Amino acid sequence: MADKSKLLVVFDIDETLIQFINKKQIANTNWNSMSEEQKNQFHYVNQGEHVIFLRPYLMDLFRLYNSNKDKYSVALWTYSEQEYSQDIASLLIKNLGLDEDFFLFTWGAEQIADDGYCGDECPKNLHAVWDNFPEFNTFNTIIVDDLYGNITHEYNMNNCIIIQPYAPFGRDKQRVSMSKELEDRALKDDALLQLQNVCEKVSRDIKGCTPRDINASFTKEAVFSPKRIKRMGLEYLLKKYATKFIMIPTIGTGYQTNRFIDVTEQSNKYGEIKRGGIKRPNRHTKRTRKKGGKWSAKYKRSINCKRPKGFSQLQYCKYGRKKTKKIQRK
What we know:
Strand content: 5-15%
Shape: globular
Structural class: alpha/beta
Number of domains: 2
């Protein structure tokens, strides 16, 4: 029987785990002119004429997963071709000292286009994962990406984490020279260390459930449902974004555009909308309604007997017996 008590973590690749600088992009950067001392501050791998920068704490996180296979499964899913996903997987296995079977799957754009759901309209749909790996579902799956469009659609909303982009040479596709600000941000990046803490809490939450509880919640209770977030003590990760005002766990500063803006601070500052005026009870119905606003059967019968002909129950309650008779005479 498949083990449903493991946590599956599905990672994006570029700017989530690594930054890839190909040989054409290097000319746009100051990498070749940097001193050896500056270069050695980073964990990087030369792959032919390309340079791949590994995010800080990536080795620690993946070795934790590797040594606790009874708790974790790991996968890669990129918007690039599947071949690229497989190449990066091989590179990580070799350079981080991981087992050959470390990754559950390595998917690319092909699996987005042929996912059997809605392709580019809702990319990286986790339902495609669950169809192929039935031991995982909404109860025990996390998907991590730096781009909200890949993971925040309705199918993944309660199973996703947005992570701050790792981009020592900027997010521009052509890359830029590493400024002092970009260098400091890259060297101080601890997003994967924070993610490790999240994964450990989620794993403990899953392991703390009985097989019966897991089966009952397997397709119904998402990892980041409000109830479980509170139970795991992860409320501090929640940030509110101005796209239908969705709440998404976020590590660091999420990538923003004019359609996806972090409004957490503004929301906390100004609070919920408040309506003016004082709600006053209807003086004709205050004594005749039960708690909860429902009419009693006895009162309905009395109203039907007493109200003048041609007047509805609502009109009778609004005007009262004397006034409705007066209106009726006119």
